Description:
By secondary structure, this protein is mainly beta. The protein has one domain (1-48). It has one helix at residues 37-41, and strands at residues 22-25, 32-35, 46-47, 54-55. The strands form 2 sheets. It has a two-stranded antiparallel sheet with strand order 1-2. A two-stranded antiparallel ribbon has the order 3-4. Strand 3 and strand 4 (54-55) form a beta hairpin. The radius of gyration is 10 Å and the shape is globular. Residues 9-52 form the Small zinc finger protein HVO-2753-like zinc-binding pocket domain. This is RNA-binding protein.
Amino acid sequence: MTSNEVEYCxxxxxxxxxxxAVSFKCPSCGADMGRCGKCRQQxxxxxxxxxxxxxx
Length: 56
C-alpha cells in the first residue's frame, strides 16, 4: 500500500490486503477510507469516522 492509502477496513477493521480490497474517498467529506473484499462483496454497511456518512 502507498502512504496515502488506509490500512484497515472501515466496516470490519481487518487489515486491507488481497483481492478486492480498495481505498477510496468518503463521498461526503473526502476522508480516506478502505474496504476489504469480503465486506464489499457482502455489501456491509460502513460509516466514515470523520463525518459520519453511512454507505452500503
